[in-house]
Predict the structure of NAD(P)H quinone dehydrogenase 1.
Amino acid sequence: MLKKILIVYAHQSAGSFNAAAKDAAVKVLTSQGCKVEVSDLYAMKFKASATAEDVTGTVKDAEHFQYGEETMLAWKEGRLSADITEEHRKLSEAAVVVFQFPMYWFTVPAIMKGWMDRVLTLGFAYTSEKRYSQGIFKDKKAMLSFTTGSHESMFSANGINGDMNVTLWPLQNGILHYCGFQVLAPQIFWPPPHIPSESRCSMLEAWRTRLEGHASFCLNVEPDVTTVHWCDCSH
């Protein structure tokens, strides 16, 4: 049985390296028989801020508004805003979610953080009882694929930016694995603006090769290993 892949993509330019990485993933995965859906956040003008506008109808406590509790109730009652509901559909159907973005200030762009804030709704994506290895999305995989503005050596344990594994911990463990995702090793494209075009082409080719090697992406085949490799930055 073929799987569905969701790519959550955040870049303003269709001529960017991130766009090329996203397009390469769509082409490779589609050629393998996957059904690929892309949430192009900038093109969608996706709202980044988590506000009471995400709830249709009357909120339970307007004076002491609590976003998590109000949106959980709205989710249960079918009263979330249409844009969140549509992303819930995509996420529910997806077996694998790939986040494609340029790293901004050591994390994701605001529009993608807004997607995480609003779409990973309490009740839908996690509860106090269903987290980490017992999380709601424990049967799904997730991967960060992103570009940097600094060279790899600057993100080493002794580098000026610090260890990339530490930088990614809040995203990979605190958000994705918290919701139960099996977090795959990130795909890191070290600074495309600061390397020769041949090197950029080589990075894209390595990305295509990696995707082609993931037979379990598109087929219901169990991976050979059960360990979650969320912080292996050598890949």
Q: What stands out?
A: The beta strands are 4-9, 35-40, 96-102, 141-147, 182-183, 187-189. The chain has a mean pLDDT of 91.
